[in-house]
């Protein structure tokens, strides 16, 4: 026997295995990993392209480039209006007011004639009397002129003027238009030049154009020398959203990975096999921390490669720490949010630096900083402003605690950002662990809000005060004698405090109740009552035996398994697994080392191979590293997956996946193996696909066998062999919907219904007690292999058939259930058992006369036993809940009955011929989802005389024959009243 690791050694082993699993998943999902690591390159490239585009847009303006030796601009001319950006055609070079003065008219004429390089034609100028008229025209004709001149002749020596123009700069097709230089200053120089000429030449001069021939007016403009000025610094505007988006890619991938494992119940499966939560979180934190470190390092590297001042002028260590701590903070944030999210999807928002100002209270800033992107955006803004020009010194490592350059308000420093990120990262991790415990998981399980205050949480031990508790007095004892005997055996041993070494699991009055809830709709409030999944279960599971739990969907089978494995906390009672109580967290930790579980769903990652799955779960169970490889090889050989050991599970067929799941359950030689529908995999088929199959069946004649999807008969038989061989040295608990599987594999069977055990015993015991009788199968000569008799013997065969049918009808009052050319099958009620000796002795004496080859007698099938018990339980519940189904008679009449009703009287069918009316027998079966459904109805037959009248039956049920929809309400007849 291999000794398993425990405690700290097991924690380290589980951590290493999970870390390797995370590495393999990331390596094989290369697209997501590449995006997580190298998204920063594309965003840095986008920032670089954006910066170059902005600079190209301002390339014609000296304001956005370093100017050391500016050139003068000498008397610039008034440009044609067509060269302006903000102009609609047809356009005017300029408009003017003051045309009531002849002197002003001459000045304007001189402006037009003396424009350097290009006289302005009169068609490109429009005059008005007053500025008000100009405003009115501009309002009616917007954007048809870049501006206007307004003249006023005060006296002979004073002429005033004003300029009205649009001062908005425009960038268009790579050109930058500054209206001050392109229109306002040229118009101002021309106006002042001609006004001066007019004043110098005197009032009596005939023409100011020639009055002062040596007059010169030369004006030149020279910019101040200046460095490049970044009025729109890309790193402070485009940078924050781009870098937040970079981090969000990793954030979404990280959270999706966590949620996928929760959604697919992979983490739940690992927990059932003994996984420590600390190993789980530590493995994810380490792996994602490494990816975060590499991603942050690449961001800084790419930024330096593209020569951004943001990265070159600031300390690289300071910048790296901002990115790393932010992404690490988002990792903790993802851990916390994953507790609230049940689907693999998430969203993110881009933040702004809204409250980081002195006009906002400190509390607002603290609350705003709890969302990591907000603080990250502020940090980027500080770093960007500190390097907005090449002359800025940036933020060094030694000055990170000081106010950043160009930060006038200084409400937060880079050092504060680092400290805040580190503190909130710890906060998110603590909250992630807390919410992971107190928020219901996929099974609806959660701990109390103050679970961390309970001593047993830290000590790992719980009080066993309920271990010997007996059921309360108000519990209703079971009706079945075998179930009652099982209860008494367990209670007797509890009172005597005596353990049976042959018992592996002892369930003591197990109770599980799921709390009710309240759904508030648009107009009404609906209260959902509590659901009692288990109602006091008492049963023993013996060692070296396979116990099979049968039941319809919702009977409580999976709840038993979830309680035994600690997935679902119990409401009452207890269970001992090899002496360890499931009420104790310490006991549960020991139980999980002893248990192997194959749940309904496949506990597989598509990207991992079969060998890697077994290595992971062997490490979780605590097998020594030296023995893991040999154990894996033996497990693969046992389930015939040696050749597919290195093939990814995503390529496995349905049967291969189930074999691998069973191998995982058996890894580590567990003493208790729980197999929840290991061969039938209909439960793992998506719900929408089940709905599709349901619609096909309901609205067409097609039939689709969902029960055997993915598991062929050969694979099924092989899986049964594996389960049979696994019984030695351990106890096995099996749940299934296949009665054939239960009959072949089980040593003991318990049938559950509505949270209670209805019967228990071996297959033969259940058939003898609850079967409808016996099956007699008669084979005729020449058909020993199921072959049809030769043509020459057909007449004799027909004669023999009729003789045997007549014999059974006379002696046992039965007709054949099945009939073909080679055999007859009779279903014989149990009350005819006393007639068997004489009947079959005579039949054997007349064997040659009847042409009989052999006679086989056996019990009715286990399926009939199960359906009989399940049907009765469903009928009790359906009557109490008013749950009805409808079937249609051959005459077209629709009849409504409770689920599980077997014999049903049809009201309104009384006649002179059948005064008591007619009835039908309803046949039931289990559908692919484990629920009872109608498989067919018998022919209409008269109600026997010993049955109560239809009127009395209806009055006792308190129901009307006909409801408002016109559907007949059937009357349930007690099967014990039917004499067959």
TrEMBL record:
Query: Which Pfam families does UniProt cross-reference here?
Result: ABC2_membrane_3, ABC_tran, ABCA11_C
Is Nucleotide-binding among this UniProt entry's keywords?
A: yes
The residue ranges of the ABC transporter domain are: 505-779
| Family annotation (InterPro entries) | AAA+_ATPase, ABC2_TM, ABC_transporter-like_ATP-bd, ABC_transporter-like_CS, ABCA, ABCA2/9/11_C, P-loop_NTPase
User: Which PROSITE patterns has this protein been placed in?
Assistant: ABC_TRANSPORTER_1 (PS00211), ABC_TRANSPORTER_2 (PS50893)
Q: What is its main location?
A: membrane
UniProt xrefs under CDD domains: ABC_subfamily_A
Which compartment or compartments is the protein found in?
A: Membrane
Keyword field contains Protein transport: no
Q: Which GO terms describe its molecular function?
A: ABC-type transporter activity; ATP binding; ATP hydrolysis activity; lipid transporter activity
Topology term for the membrane: Multi-pass membrane protein
Q: Show the stretches that span the lipid bilayer.
A: 32-49, 199-219, 239-260, 281-306, 318-342, 420-439
- One annotated Gene Ontology cellular component of this protein: membrane
Q: Which keywords fit this entry according to its UniProt record?
A: ATP-binding, Membrane, Nucleotide-binding, Transmembrane, Transmembrane helix
Family to which the UniProt record says this protein belongs: Belongs to the ABC transporter superfamily. ABCA family. CPR flippase (TC 3.A.1.211) subfamily.
Name of the featured protein: ABC transporter A, ABCA
Taxonomic lineage is: Eukaryota, Viridiplantae, Streptophyta, Embryophyta, Tracheophyta
């Amino acid at each position: 026997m291999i000794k398993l690791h425990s405690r700290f050694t097991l924690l380290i082993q589980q951590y290493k295995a999970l870390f390797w699993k995370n590495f393999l998943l990331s390596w094989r999902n290369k697209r997501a990993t590449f995006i997580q690591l190298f998204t920063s390159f594309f965003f840095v490239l986008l920032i670089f392209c954006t910066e170059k585009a902005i600079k190209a847009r301002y390339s014609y303006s000296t304001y956005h480039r370093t100017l050391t030796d500016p050139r003068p601009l000498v008397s610039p001319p008034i440009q044609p209006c067509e060269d302006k950006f903000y102009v609609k055609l047809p356009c005017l070079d300029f408009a003017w007011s003051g045309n009531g003065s002849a002197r002003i008219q001459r000045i304007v004429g001189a402006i037009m004639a003396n424009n350097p390089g290009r006289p302005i034609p009169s068609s490109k100028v429009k005059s008005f009397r007053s500025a008000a008229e100009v405003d009115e025209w501009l309002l009616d004709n917007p954007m048809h002129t870049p501006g206007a001149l307004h003249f006023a002749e005060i006296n002979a020596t004073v002429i005033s003027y004003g300029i009205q123009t649009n001062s908005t700069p425009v960038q268009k097709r790579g050109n930058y238009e500054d209206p001050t230089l392109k229109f306002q200053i040229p118009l101002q120089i021309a106006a002042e030049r001609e006004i001066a000429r007019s004043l110098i030449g005197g009032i009596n001069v005939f023409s100011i154009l020639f009055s002062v021939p040596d007059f010169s007016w030369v004006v030149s403009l020279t910019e101040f020398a200046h460095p490049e000025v970044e009025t729109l610094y890309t790193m402070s505007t485009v940078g924050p959203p781009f870098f937040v988006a970079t981090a969000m890619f990793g954030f979404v991938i990280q959270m999706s990975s966590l949620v996928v494992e929760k959604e697919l119940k992979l983490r739940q499966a690992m927990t059932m096999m003994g996984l420590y939560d600390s190993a789980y979180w530590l493995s994810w934190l380490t792996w994602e921390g490494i990816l975060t470190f590499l991603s942050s390092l690449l961001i800084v590297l790419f930024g330096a490669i593209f020569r951004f001042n943001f990265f070159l002028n600031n300390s690289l260590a300071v910048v790296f720490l901002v990115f790393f701590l932010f992404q690490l903070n988002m990792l903790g944030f993802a851990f916390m949010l994953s507790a609230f999210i049940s689907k693999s999807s998430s969203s993110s928002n881009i933040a702004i630096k809204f409250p980081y100002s002195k006009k906002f209270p400190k509390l607002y800033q603290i609350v705003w900083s709890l969302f990591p992107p907000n603080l990250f955006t502020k940090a980027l803004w500080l770093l960007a402003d500190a390097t907005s020009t090449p002359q800025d010194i940036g933020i060094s490592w030694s000055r990170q605690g000081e106010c950043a350059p160009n930060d006038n308000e200084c409400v937060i420093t880079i050092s504060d950002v680092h400290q805040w990120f580190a503190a909130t990262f710890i906060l998110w991790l603590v909250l992630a662990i807390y919410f992971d415990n107190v928020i219901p998981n996929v099974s609806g399980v959660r701990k109390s809000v103050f679970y961390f205050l309970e001593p047993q949480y830290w000590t790992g031990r719980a009080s066993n005060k309920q271990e010997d508790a007996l059921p309360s007095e108000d519990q209703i004892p079971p009706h079945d004698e075998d179930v009652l005997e099982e209860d008494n055996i367990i209670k007797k041993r509890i009172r005597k405090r005596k353990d049976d070494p042959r018992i592996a699991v002892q369930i003591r009055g197990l109770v599980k109740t799921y709390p009710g809830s309240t759904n508030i709709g648009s107009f009404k409030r609906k209260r959902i009552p509590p659901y009692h999944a288990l109602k006091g279960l008492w049963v023993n599971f013996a060692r070296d035996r396979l116990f099979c739990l049968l039941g319809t969907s919702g009977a409580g089978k999976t709840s038993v398994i979830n309680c035994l494995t600690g997935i679902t906390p119990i409401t009452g009672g207890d269970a001992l697994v090899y002496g360890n109580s499931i009420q104790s967290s310490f006991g549960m930790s020991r139980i999980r080392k002893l248990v192997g579980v194959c749940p309904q769903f496949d506990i597989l990652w598509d990207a991992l191979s079969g060998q890697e799955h077994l290595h992971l779960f062997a490490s979780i169970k605590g097998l020594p590293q030296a023995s893991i490889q040999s154990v894996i090889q033996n497990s693969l050989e046992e389930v015939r997956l040696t050749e597919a050991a290195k093939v990814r599970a995503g390529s496995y067929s349905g049967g291969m996946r189930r074999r691998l799941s069973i191998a995982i359950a058996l890894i580590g030689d567990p003493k208790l193996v729980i197999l929840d529908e290991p061969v039938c995999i209909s439960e793992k088929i998506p719900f929408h696909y089940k709905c599709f199959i349901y619609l096909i069946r309901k609205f067409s004649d097609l039939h689709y066998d969902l029960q055997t999807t993915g598991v062929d008969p050969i694979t099924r038989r092989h899986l049964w062999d594996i389960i049979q061989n696994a019984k030695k040295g351990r106890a096995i608990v099996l749940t299934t919907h296949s009665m054939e599987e239960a009959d072949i594999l089980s040593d003991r069977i318990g049938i559950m219904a509505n949270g209670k055990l209805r019967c228990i015993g071996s297959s033969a015991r259940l058939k003898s007690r609850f079967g409808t009788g016996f099956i007699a199968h008669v084979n005729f000569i020449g058909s020993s292999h199921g072959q049809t008799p030769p043509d020459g013997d057909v007449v004799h065969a027909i004669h023999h058939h009729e003789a045997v049918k007549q014999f059974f009808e006379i002696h046992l009052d039965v007709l054949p259930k099945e009939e073909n050319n080679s055999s007859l099958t009779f279903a014989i009620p149990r009350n005819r058992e006393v007639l068997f000796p004489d009947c079959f002795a005579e039949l054997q004496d007349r064997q040659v006369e009847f042409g009989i080859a052999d006679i086989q007698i056996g019990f009715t099938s286990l399926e009939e036993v199960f359906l009989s018990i399940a049907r009765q339980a469903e009928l009790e519940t359906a009557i109490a809940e008013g749950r009805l189904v409808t079937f249609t008679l051959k005459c077209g009449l629709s009849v409504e009955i409770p689920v599980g009703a077997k014999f049903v009287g049809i009201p309104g069918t009384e006649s002179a011929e059948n005064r008591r009316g007619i009835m039908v027998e309803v046949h039931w079966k289990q559908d692919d989802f484990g629920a009872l459904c109608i498989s067919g109805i018998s022919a209409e037959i008269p109600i026997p005389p010993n049955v109560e009248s239809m009127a009395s039956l209806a009055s006792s049920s308190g129901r009307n024959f006909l409801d408002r929809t016109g559907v007949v309400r059937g009357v349930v007849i007690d099967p014990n009243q039917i004499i067959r």
